[in-house]
Amino acid sequence: MTNCLFFGDSITYGEYDGILGGWVDNLKRYCHSRYCNDNSKEVSIFNLGIGGETTEGLIKRFDVEFSARKSPFDNLIFLSYGVNDLAINDNVQIVSKEQYKKNLQNVIRKAKEATEKIFLISILPISSKIDGVISSTGKFRTIKAIQEYNEVLKNLAKENGLEFIDTYSVFFDTKEDNLSKDSVHPNEKGYQLISEIIKSIIEKYL
Length: 206
Fold this sequence. Notes:
By secondary structure, this protein is of the alpha/beta class. The chain contains eight helices and nine strands.
């Protein structure tokens, strides 16, 4: 039995995809059809995304969430954070790059006690429409900051022997077509693109 746990924010949760439920739900349907229907493998997908969450929230709940869903056989852990951490609200960075790295390193250390199959997913690009502009939610984000935080993720992956999943590069050239009207969250097409990327990772480890 393999459990795949997806920790993240509203993009992991599937915000703005009211029909299909986002990329993790796409994966859940795929794995049920691909593995469960023919009884070839038992694969469980857990969507642990919470809207607005940063790595500060992840630190507080990781132990409880993982303990409740940990498979005694095999676990894949996916961490998808940063778009809220890097945002500036009321002229204050919500989570600094240094704290962001420290928080993720702390979670990686805990996760490694149970599995080496830990994946860091890059932060998606935002639309050019809100690059350097205060959004309707009052948050300020830039492509430059996203690139810097993604570098933190890349380095963390390298330092810990983990796989870095670069959704940023896949999205960048077509981001305006793959993002919803809020310019931050993917639309249905964008979520489908993410699920295809992650699907290939899951299949490699099953």
